[in-house]
Amino acid sequence: MEQFIHYFLHLIFPGILSYFLFKENWIRCYAILLLTMLVDLDHLLATPIFDPCRCSINFHPLHSWFAIAIYFILLFFKPTRVVAVGLLLHMATDGLDCFLSQNNCG
């Protein structure tokens, strides 16, 4: 169920959000929200690249609290607002994963 929630929040929910928040250009906004998943490229810096028991929040550089603060600031500027929404949604999803995985990893 955790994987379903994770992929729903990364792939389907951004489409729903785009449709309701950015109705005029929802397809373009949905594409931008999907592209913000490139933030996961920082996982390539970790060894191992994937660890199901590792919380990515504040472990990977683009998932750090400092980076999240910058993403939050980007919300206040219209040209970067959609990107900021995508990045913050991604961080919220990964944060939820941290919470949910605590039960499976001890």
UniProtKB/TrEMBL annotation:
Sequence intervals crossing the membrane: 6-22, 29-50, 62-77
Pfam family, one: DUF6122
Domain of life, per lineage: Bacteria
Annotated keywords: Membrane, Transmembrane, Transmembrane helix
Protein name in UniProt: Metal-dependent hydrolase
Species of provenance: Flavobacterium microcysteis
